[in-house]
Design a protein that fits this description.
261 residues, alpha/beta, D-Maltodextrin-Binding Protein, domain 2, 2 domains, six-stranded mixed beta sheet, three-stranded parallel beta sheet, 11 helices, 37% helix
Amino acid sequence: MSRTKAILLFLSVLLIAVPVFGTIAQDASPAWPDLGGREIVIAVENAYPPYNFYNENNEAVGWDYDTFNAICALLNCVPVFEEVGWDGMLAGIATGQWDVAGDGITYTVARDESVDFSSLYQAYDEALLVREGEDRFTDPESLKALPEYRVATQVGTTNEITAKSLFAEDRVLSFDTFGAAIEALLNDDVDAVVVDRPAAEGYIEAQGGMMTLPGSLAGIEGLAFAFPPGSELVPYINAAMWSLQATGEWDAIYVKWFESN
């Protein structure tokens, strides 16, 4: 069993109970709410593979796209994806600029004070992403033993919090996007990138020349969709997530983006 698969086994423990509309019998379907073709505006960065990114044909694709398309197929809504910089995404959701945010957002108690969250949908850990063949260090402690080491991450993320808790703050370089942090790594400007492991694997698949170190940096965490406070969409999205999980479509989308290669 791969490390990623083992981590995902924690999902059943982390998932929050999901409300379901209507009465569900063993061989019956829930009575779905009909959103009447309403547009649902979804904030994505388009720079965070495999959740959302531009492919070789310059098409915006990824797990977020397939998942929200499947959710809206159940709820009779139209997903409208809007490209948003990470630095303003949660603040914009908090003020209702968009209906929901994808982008692999980590649930935290602090964030829950300003936005609402869906049920958790994925369990993961944080890892050190390094250049392929890296043999000077194997974990944070041996990395810190290197003279003039540098660690990159993205500003305003839980990864930045983890990086600054593990390494000297003046050794942490925070970039506006993870793409810039990855470029710094591949250009030999930094020694490692602190990033969520699923995203690290997405960058490895997209660009090559990198690998993750096996150790977890901050234990198991969970991802959720973020909504404006009091959003009426939360129970609807939760119910659709439950249905996709129950039918196996959720797993099929996961395999496509995380295990297909």
